[in-house]
Target: Ribosome-binding ATPase YchF
Amino acid sequence: GFKCGIVGLPNVGKSTLFNALTETAAAQAANYPFCTIEPNVGEVAVPDPRLEKLAAIAKSGQIIPTRLTFVDIAGLVRGASKGEGLGNQFLANIREVDAIAHVVRCFEDSDITHVEGKIAPLADIETIETELMLADLDSLEKRVDNLTKKAKGNDKDAKEQLDLVNRTLVLLREGKPARLVERKAEEERAFGMLGLLSSKPVLYVCNVEEGSAATGNSFSQAVQEQAAKEGAVAVVISAKIESEIATISREERADFLETLGLEEAGLDRLIRAGYTLLDLITYFTVGPKEARAWTIYRGTKAPGAAGVIHTDFEKGFIRAETIAYDDYVALGGEAGARDAGKLRLEGKEYVVADGDVMHFRFNT
Ligand code: GDP
Model:
């Protein structure tokens, strides 16, 4: 599944947010199997009203939403790249995630110490980004000698890698994150193999006081402007409100949110922002036993989508019976869609669309 790491300086509200998200998710998902929650790893069900609709039409016995994994990565402080705080542990954890949710303190509270002495979200962002870039600089510099030797021996792959590494080093030395390196499509794989921390997509989470949850404040506004400049995404959340939401029932939630001027819980907004950031979409498998949602990258072809369910589905892929979500709903399910000629047989080159209802045929 897709993993999102929650990072940020100490005392910005990471744990409060993480606990709220996983508690809310656990409460929502009480009926769903496989809801494993470890101390710092939480699986969050992705809310999707389409799934309930499909399940109602197919009279599915069970609804299984798709999930995103959140990892609470503590211990990032100034100097982490040099081993301060939890240093290397932190860096190892962050290497394993697909995206970073960077929590930024945008609330004032004299009772809660700010590690850098004052509330300054843009400076905090820079502190964290600098640690990620320093760690990348370090890991790339360690590779250069070895690659240079290989490249001299006329190793074509090594030459190409060295070129990519050197271009990345130039950028990092200018204080720019690795994600900004210009690269050709055929270099993307090698780039991914470098496992660079500053290449991960970032979502800024502005933690504001309760009164500013709907509107944001001047701090969160500064972060949002910065995010817009970088082509990044920022969401405004009050970790305090999220922890209150975690304690009330689903029925009470709508009223509670309304009194705060909010349309939906931060969890839902965060997940949606994560989907946008990672360019993810959802497809469905629907039957009498269960209706289930699956997450894939936009642009994934049918065999790759099947592989999310099981690697055998991908290896032995023959074709995918596919019904667009709107057709499935409008025609009252699979039989209706089939009769109306809306059940398509798609092959290996089919690019899966968001909302597709799919049934895979495969050889074992
Ligand atoms: P972490 O170190 O980033 O994980 O931060 P915590 O989640 O442990 O929060 C640090 C302190 O800030 C705790 O005492 C929280 O109750 C408090 N806190 C978190 N979010 C908010 C907020 O939005 N407003 C206020 N006033 N306090 C908060």
Observations:
- The CA atoms of residues 126 and 163 lie 27 Å apart.
